Each structure stands twice: as C-alpha cells, then as structure tokens.
Amino acid sequence: MKETHPFATRVNAQLPGWLVKELHTYNALLPTAEDRVRLTNRLAARNYKEGNGGPFAALVVDPATGELVSVGVNVVLSSGLSSVHAEVMALSLAQARLGTWDLGSAGGRPLELVVNWRPCTMCYGALVWSGVKHLLIAGDGPECEALTGFDEGPMPTDWRAELEGRGISVTSGVLRSDAIAVFAEYGRSDALVYNARGTGARPRE
Amino acid sequence: MKETHPFATRVNAQLPGWLVKELHTYNALLPTAEDRVRLTNRLAARNYKEGNGGPFAALVVDPATGELVSVGVNVVLSSGLSSVHAEVMALSLAQARLGTWDLGSAGGRPLELVVNWRPCTMCYGALVWSGVKHLLIAGDGPECEALTGFDEGPMPTDWRAELEGRGISVTSGVLRSDAIAVFAEYGRSDALVYNARGTGARPRE
C-alpha cells in the first residue's frame, strides 16, 4: 500500500554480521563471572573496530546455570539510532527470544545483565524496567569516561542503592583492568576511527 | 539460511495500527506548545485503552516551523520490549526518517522532544543522546507516579540543570491539568486493564 504520509512507523536494529556469524559457537555455558565479563570485553574491543558503535558489549545470562540468553553490542552507528546501546540490545534480544517484556517473569529464573562497565543513564533506566535481578559489571569508576571521552550522563548519587532498593543486586570489579585496557586502546584510536562530524567533539555512540 | 543457534539477532518495534491509520491526517503544523502537548495528551489517553502500553505519547517537532517529524507512543505491551517507551519510539522514528542517529546534526534545525510528562530515567538518558535541543513537557511533578502507580526511576537531583548544561532547554507546565486528567482516568481503570501478572503490582509499562 502506498504510504500517504512522510512518517517512519517501524524501528529496526540488528546485531552486526561478524557477531551473528559467531553465534553458533556460543553454546558453551559461562559459569563464572569472569567467563561472562571476558566475553563482553572481547566483543567490546572488536565492536568499535568494525564500525558498529562504541566499545561496549552486554549479555543476558542465567547466573544459576551460566546459560547465555542474549548478546548485545552498541550498534548506534550501524543502525543510525542513538538508543541502541549494548545493554538495550541485549535486554531487547532476550525479551524477543523469551517472548516477554518482563525478564523477571521468564520461567522463574532470575536473570543477570553483564556489561563491560557501569551503564550510562539511559541503560541504567532500561535495566530497571527489564526485570533482570542482577547487574554484573567489570567496573564503575571514572576510567571509562576519562579514557574514551564518552559522557555517561547524569546519574543519581546513590545509583547502586537505588537498584538494590528495587531488588537488583550489583557486582562490580571483575576483570576490571582488562576492561580499562579496551577503553584505553579505543581512546588512542580516536582520530582515525571516529569524529565523524569533523567537529573535534566525539559523538556519543 | 537455517539458524544454527538459539539467539535473537533483530529488534523490531512498530507503531500501533490505529495510530498508523491516523498519520495521513498529521500534515498540519503544530505551531504552539499547546498544539503539541494537546496531541500527546490525546494519543496517551487512547494508547492504553488500545492495549499497546502505558498512557504516554511523544513527538519530535521542529519548533521553528511547527513541523511534526515523528510520533511515538508506549508500545511495551504490543512489542514485548520493555525499552520502547513513547520517547524512545519518537526519537528512534525521527532518526529513522532523517537518516541520522544525531538529531542535532539534522539540517541545522534544533529539534524538540514533546512528552505528556517528565521522562523516566531511561528516556531522560535517551533524550540526552538523541541530539534534540529542547524538551517540552506537560508537567514534572509527583502526580504521574501518584495517579498511575508507575515508577519513574531514580533521577539525578538536578535533572533540569543537567540537561541545560548539555545544551538542552526545558519547558514544563503546558496543558498540565489535561495531562493529569489522563493519568487519573488511567489510574481508575487499573483493575480492568492492567495487572497482567495477577500479582497486585502494576507492571512498569
């Protein structure tokens, strides 16, 4: 049917081809926190080099078994959408796979979001609404912003207590130096890879 | 090609059919703030009755001309994705239409996000990353949470100054009582329309 209006009506975002090609190798369990964060660090390090977006990756995992439910990377550049950070992709893909917007009601399994650093303001909110019960992050200090130039956004002062008050526990500080090494490498690569608008300011992807 | 893995790889969300059917009537300009907020209030009032999600709607507008760039409503229930609040839909659909993740670089026009109340934590972050330069909201007090039962999430104490420090101006208090009337009507309809999990707790859609 011919459209009689100029508006977009659908939002589509997808994982990059290089990651989709790897997914058949992702059947192994990730039983330890180190296993999970190691995967996010590896994907984050590749993601920006492939041009999909920033150096960020996220997983949804069943921590009781180590089963991987979903994998996400930041696809802001490849999708042209500013909201598809790694966490939003991982949470949305878990919801698409499990058929529910509430991951807290998914078969009685408390699920975990794994990220290679503390989420930005947007993703912090997204994780609260998703129904996950645990957040596992490589770290949460100023290193990410300092090394990459990204703004993480205005966070509430006691971000961790706000999560815990909503039934979401937090583990931080797993393979922290490995995560920082990815941000440092990204920072050094800046002039070549980014600055797409030629303004001297790094875009927030 | 047959998939050899169990993972979801694409995220899809779309506007509801009733809204798509109306879009051909949306060619008129919305020159005043009241024009814009009135449309969000009307769409919010219909959205929850149609079963798409909560009573929230958002627009992206060129405030210099009143041109409507995109329309969004909350489609958490109809899409099965917890992140597709009205603001995320409106921002993403504007980016899809204009072909850029950075609405601040779209033809030199400073664009405005219009919402029928202050955004939740997630959408607050999403608007910062989107490149819009102005936020227009019907109101920002406790009435929305009190009347609807929704949690807006942990916000930074000085949310407005944080936006203004990033070059995003805020106008609040336009058709405020009309917005509140929608939330009150939603609140009264609670038992019938929502509480999908039968737990007595309202889902965060």
How would you describe the overall organization of this protein?
With 205 residues, chain A is an alpha/beta fold. Chain A is globular, with a radius of gyration of 17 Å. The longest helix of chain A is centred in the first third of the chain and has 17 residues, at 33-49. Chain A has a single domain, classed as Cytidine Deaminase, domain 2 (3-Layer(aba) Sandwich). In chain A, strand 2 (57-62) and strand 3 (67-73) form a beta hairpin. Chain A is built from 9 helices and 6 strands, in the order βααββααβαβααβαα. A 5-stranded mixed beta sheet of chain A has the order 3-2-4-5-6, sandwiched between helices. Chain A has helices spanning 17-22, 33-49, 76-79, 86-98, 121-130, 143-148, 159-164, 176-188, 190-193, and strands at residues 10-14, 57-62, 67-73, 112-115, 134-137, 169-172. At the A-B interface, strand 1, strand 3, helix 3, helix 4 and helix 5 of A face strand 1, strand 3, helix 3, helix 4 and helix 5 of B. Strand 1 of chain A pairs antiparallel with strand 1 (10-14) of chain B.
